[in-house]
Specification:
This protein starts with 12 loop residues before the first helix and ends with a helix. The N terminus is likely disordered. By secondary structure, it is an alpha+beta fold. Strands 1-2-3-5-4 form a five-stranded antiparallel beta sheet. The protein has one domain: BirA Bifunctional Protein, domain 2.
Length: about 230
């Protein structure tokens, strides 16, 4: 695995300071007056972080898209259908989508950077009904493989399965199945947390990639379920 450029990936505390101030001043006039700070303290460092991850993340899977323009989420909120009309997100984030993501709902990786909440994600969040059915079918068809995933020591000691679940068994599945807790899942997503201090130290990019590497068992299971490579 290629080691990222630690200097380029070193987020400064000012990254989180800006986001804290934005939360307290979430309005257009304040943001416009501080847009240069956003560009230099948040957007620029995150794009550099993403750019430097291309080689090491490609060593985990060449199927994950790592592009400074495509991977970084916009700071602007979509308020069309929300009661909360705050115009800006108070976190920064990047998603490393599967190259097949435009054609099927495929698993990917995610990094969330927010004051007091820094975490990584890996897997599928809110898959469409076809993909969700495919995943559940594979759990039923390959129970030993699924158990090996959830019992993998590297995965279970570093990641937590998160997301929403149905209260009852999904239609067409045995409510008494030994894996019914997992079959009720609506999301197949792993999360692992970091501290702000970790994010603001050299080598954070490498630690993020190492965590994504440890999520490989789930990622392989999910990609096989939806019919794409990893």
């Amino acid at each position: 695995m290629t080691t990222p450029n630690d200097d380029a990936l070193h987020f400064q505390p000012s990254f989180f300071t800006f986001l804290r101030e934005l939360k307290e001043n979430n309005e257009r006039d304040w943001f416009q007056a501080n847009k240069k700070r956003y560009e230099t303290e948040v957007k620029g460092p995150l794009q550099a972080f993403i750019a430097n991850l291309a080689a090491p993340l490609g060593g985990v899977s060449s199927e994950l898209v790592c592009d400074p323009k495509k991977s970084m989420f916009r700071i602007y909120r979509d308020v069309r259908f929300s009661k909360d009309k705050s115009p800006y997100k108070t976190h920064a984030a990047a998603q490393f989508r599967h190259v097949a993501g435009k054609d099927v709902h495929a698993p990917g990786a995610y990094l969330h950077l927010e004051p007091g909440s820094v975490f990584a994600g890996a897997g599928i969040w809110h898959p469409d009904s076809k993909s969700l059915r495919s995943i559940r079918d594979r759990i039923v068809d390959k129970p030993k493989e699924w158990k090996a995933v959830v019992n993998d020591s590297d995965l279970s000691s570093n990641w937590t399965l998160a997301g929403e679940s149905l209260k009852r068994a999904p239609k067409g599945f045995d409510p008494d199945h030994e894996l019914i807790v997992d079959l009720r899942r609506k999301d197949f997503i792993l999360t692992t947390e970091f501290s702000e201090d970790e994010a603001c130290t050299p080598g954070f990019g490498l630690r993020f990639v190492e965590q994504i590497q440890k999520a490989t068992p789930l990622m392989r299971f999910l990609t096989k379920a939806v019919g794409v490579s990893y």
